[in-house]
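Tip: read the tokens left to right.
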């Protein structure tokens, strides 16, 4: 069976999208690990399968796989790319769409250029989860900040945030001097994180600007992470480091995140780009 696909990216965070709305796709025939291999397959951070809704409350369903084959609950940049694909290819009949993911409902609003193509997407990522057992995080702390010990370094101060998927935000002096792989893996494997987590290392430039590096659960170091950027702004506000609207410099590009505070949804504004399409 030949399966058509689309390759897209947002801030270098790259995806393969399968359209199960207009093509018959058997999920059992998808070989995520082989396809995700950057030398012998297509290569991607996540594989996204968009499907028709199961009820009238949403417009589409979205299933997300990491390149190691594990299923992910949420993906901000990937959802933005799916939104662009749906609108540009007229699979969706409107520019605002709600997508159901394993991590909850995500709402997208596409901004189109003069040619009618989507060049930017606002993604409403929902209200962040801060209750430790719901993230999940198992450990004692003070307020929203916790301290964990690893064999990789001295005790680390972290802020866990749930954005449909678990995140750990770590503020550092210099992200370029941070051992993202080893320190991030030590955090991901910590006993206080039963489901592991995406880890974001953050250098605060001022209250409206940060630089980050990312270690994604199931994908390794990535050039961008939309839900991670949202977690960074939430953690930054909770620890009095950041304001309500922040420009985030990722290795793959710049995005903007806004959050009005506790009880409010987090909004990610990011570009989305088509790379190529093919079949496998």
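Filled-in amino acids:
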């Amino acid at each position: 069976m030949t399966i058509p696909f689309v390759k897209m990216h947002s801030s270098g965070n790259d995806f393969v999208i399968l359209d199960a709305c207009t093509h018959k796709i058997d999920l059992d025939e998808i070989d995520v690990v082989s396809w995700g291999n950057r030398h012998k397959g297509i290569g991607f951070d996540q594989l996204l399968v968009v499907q028709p809704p199961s009820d009238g409350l949403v417009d589409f369903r979205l299933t997300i796989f990491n390149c190691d084959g594990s299923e992910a609950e949420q993906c901000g940049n990937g959802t933005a790319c799916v939104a662009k694909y749906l609108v540009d290819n007229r699979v969706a009949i409107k520019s605002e769409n709600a997508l159901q993911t394993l991590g909850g409902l995500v709402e997208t609003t596409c901004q189109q250029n003069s040619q009618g193509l989507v060049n930017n997407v606002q993604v409403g990522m929902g209200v962040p989860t801060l209750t430790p057992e719901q993230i999940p995080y198992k450990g004692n702390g003070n307020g929203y900040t916790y301290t964990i010990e690893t064999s990789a370094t001295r005790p680390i101060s972290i802020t866990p945030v749930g954005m449909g998927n678990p995140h750990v935000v770590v503020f550092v002096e210099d992200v370029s001097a941070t051992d993202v792989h080893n320190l991030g893996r030590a955090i991901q494997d910590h006993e206080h994180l039963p489901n592991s987590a995406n880890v974001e290392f953050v250098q605060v430039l001022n209250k409206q600007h940060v630089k980050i590096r990312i270690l994604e659960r199931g994908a390794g170091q990535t050039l961008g992470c939309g839900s991670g950027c949202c977690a960074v702004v939430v953690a930054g506000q909770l620890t009095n480091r950041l304001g309500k609207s922040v420009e985030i410099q990722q290795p793959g590009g710049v995005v903007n995140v806004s959050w009005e505070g506790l009880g409010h949804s987090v909004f990610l504004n990011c570009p989305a780009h088509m790379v190529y399409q093919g079949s496998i």
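The mean pLDDT is 95. The first helix runs from residue 32 to 36.
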